[in-house]
Design goal:
Elements lengths: L4 E2 L5 E2 L7 H15 L4 H10 L12 H5 L17 E4 L2 E5 L6 E5 L6 E4 L8 H17 L1 H17 L35
Antiparallel strand pairs: 1-2, 3-6, 4-5
Helix pairs in contact: 1-4
Length: about 190
């Protein structure tokens, strides 16, 4: 967790963190079970059955555990657990069409990493074993992954790219905004916003 302290001049000290040992134990357990061969869905189901809250405070899901290696999300890809803090991994941009903020991943060469050994909660051997299992599973399912991607490409090409346009579902989608707060309206029935 982030530690909120003040320096001698009364200014907040930023970037200080401390380990919550109960949660660190759950993270180590997830890594141990994954390395032992248990899948993310089974791990999530066990954690939910035991009433252990997820990082968001809701129910665990397999994606919370496995995340996405390409964008370094999920418990199994969080470098903070091996004592590395990252900055500048992504940036916020405003989508000019919708006005909503979206996150875009920065190139890995622009990421800033700092070693903080005091925050390590997962031993290097366990981290390496989890990465090896991820590599092994990626190798096993490479054909299926590429096949799925190729199917999406063929579908987009066959439909003339219409699936990629993300057309609004209704005539007024994305056009109605609250006059007070500026928030978007959402459709709540056939004709109610």
């Amino acid at each position: 967790r982030v530690v909120k302290t003040l320096d001698a001049s009364g200014e907040p000290v930023r970037g200080e963190r401390e380990i919550i040992e109960e949660q660190a134990g759950i993270v180590r357990r997830i890594f141990r079970e994954y390395v032992a061969g248990k899948g993310p869905q089974k791990i999530a189901a066990d954690l939910n059955r035991e009433g252990i809250p997820s990082p968001s405070g809701k129910r665990w899901s397999d994606t919370t555990i496995r995340g996405n290696r390409a964008i370094s999300s999920g418990i199994l890809n969080c470098e903070l657990y091996i004592g590395v803090i990252r900055w500048n991994r992504q940036r916020q941009m405003k989508n000019p069409d919708t006005g909503r903020r979206v996150l875009r991943l920065n190139p890995e060469s622009e990421w800033i990493r700092t070693d903080v050994p005091a925050l390590r909660i997962v031993p290097q051997e366990l981290w390496d074993a989890a990465k090896a299992r991820q590599d092994h599973l990626t190798g096993l399912y490479t054909k299926q992954i590429e096949g799925a991607r190729e199917g999406i490409r063929r579908s987009v090409a066959a439909n003339g790219g219409l699936n990629a346009t993300h057309r609004p579902r209704t005539l007024l989608s994305g056009l109605l905004f609250c006059g007070c707060c500026g928030g978007p309206y959402s459709l709540r029935g056939a004709d109610r916003f």
